[in-house]
C-alpha cells in the first residue's frame, strides 16, 4: 500500500497481512483522488472514512493536508494499525475511532464535507448507509458521499445519487447533499 500524493507521496505502508480487509486498489484510489482534486480544497474539508480498514483513504487525505479526518472501523487490529501509523507519520489531523459503523452513524453529532464508505461487499445493511448519512444530516450542504461497492449493488434510484464510476472491479457511487 502506498500514499499517492501530498507530503508523504510515494511512502509505502505495510499493514499486517492478517487484517480482514479488501483495500481499495491503487488504481481505483488514484482515479478517485484525481476526481477529488477537482472537487475539494483539501485544506478546508472535514472527512469521515467509514470502514477505514488499513486507513489507506484516510492516510491519503492526511498526506494532502486535510483539515480533519475521522476514520471509523470496528476491528481492533485495523484501528491499532491506523493509530500506530498516524503517530509514526505525525498526522495531527487524523483521529481513529473503534466503533460499529452503523452505531456510529446513528449517534454521530459532527458533520462532514466528504464521507467515504467502503463496507465489506457482503455486509448486510450496506444499502442503508446512504440513508443513514442523509437522515442523520451528517453531510454538510454542498458535501458529498462516495460509497465503494460491488457490481451487484446499485444506488441509481436513491434521491441523493449523482453518478457512478467503475475502475476495474471497483465501483464508486457518488451522492450529493443539496440545500434542504
Give the CATH architecture.
Answer: 3-Layer(aba) Sandwich
Give me the strand/helix succession. Answer: HEHEHEHEHEEE
Pick out the low-confidence regions: none
Overall number of structural domains? 1
Kindly name the structural category: alpha/beta
Count up the helices.
5
- Mean pLDDT over all positions: 93
CATH superfamily: Vaccinia Virus protein VP39
Principal-axis shape equals globular
Radius of gyration: 15 Å
Give the oligomeric state.
single chain
Task: Characterise the protein shown here.
Helices cover 26% and strands 26% of the residues. The chain has one domain (26-176): Rossmann fold (3-Layer(aba) Sandwich), CATH 3.40.50.150. It has 180 residues and is α/β, with parallel strands linked by helices. 37% of the residues are buried.
What characteristics describe this protein?
single chain; 180 residues; alpha/beta; Rossmann fold; 7-stranded mixed beta sheet; 7 strands
Tell me the layout of helices and strands.
Blueprint: H1 26-37, E1 46-50, H2 56-63, E2 68-73, H3 76-88, E3 94-98, H4 101-107, E4 112-117, H5 129-135, E5 139-149, E6 161-167, E7 170-176
